[in-house]
Amino acid sequence: MPPTVFIVTVLAGIVLAGFTPTRRWGLAIALVSIVALYGFAMPLTASALLRAVENEVPPSPRDPATAAAIVVFSGDIHHGDGVGVPDTVGRLTLERLDRVSALYRRRPLPILVSGGPVGDSRESLAALMARVLSEDFGVPVAWREERSQTTFENAEYSAAILRQQHIHTVLLVTQPWHMPRALWALAHEGVDAIPAPTARTYIKTPIDIAMVLPQSTALSDSFYALHEILGLIYYRLRFG
To answer: Regarding the domain delimited by 64-195, which CATH topology (the fold level of the hierarchy) does it fall under?
Structure first.
């Protein structure tokens, strides 16, 4: 996945540049890859990409009071050591659960958490999310969907649970840059989801020198944005 794939193409270009017949091609590939890698590592680029994805979901004019449940899709996981340190939710998932807690305290709707096991985790992400909501936030969870491995499966399996409960309209909680793909997947399953995202990306103004210097966090943010752009295109071609 871009942008980290440019690390590989930089190395490939350097190797090609070591041979006379492909030297010019190798140097060109390495140079373009370095420029692209630098560009995606700039906070300014990363923020602009995230905002572009987030803007695909305009502020909803619908009344959240029409929702009959809160649905939250899993994000990441923090793996333990399998002995003394247990698995728990990662930073992105925790942000979503914090948002769920705030929504629940304003209006105590039943909550559905969705997420299957990740890697060699002993529990599903849904189980970990339910535990954090219950023990750390004091918020009960009504349903757990514990099979999904992708956003599309989050929506597919969650929709099945919601249909059993005769629920058609929900508040959907996730990061704003993940919201367009999550909304599309739920709509594909016939669920009317009202966006209830975490905090939107903030672009600092005026732009200072720090915004154009490479940072590891910006590279990660660019990855999330590009992953969502390509993922939504794939969903529309594969399932649309």
So the answer is: Rossmann fold (3.40.50)
Q: Considering the entire predicted model, what is its pTM?
A: 0.92
Point out the residues of the chain with pLDDT beneath 50: none
Q: In 41-173, where does DSSP find H-type helix?
A: 43-54, 91-106, 125-135, 151-164
Residue 223: closest CA among 53, 33, 93, 56: 53
Q: What is the pLDDT of residues 25-70, one digit of tens each?
A: 999 999 999 999 999 999 999 999 999 999 998 776 778 899 999 9
Kindly state the tokens that stand for 151. 């956003």
Q: How many CB atoms lie under 10 A from the CB of residue 97?
A: 25
- Domain residue spans of the chain: 5-54+204-238, 64-195
**Alpha carbon distance 188, 174 (integer Å):** 17
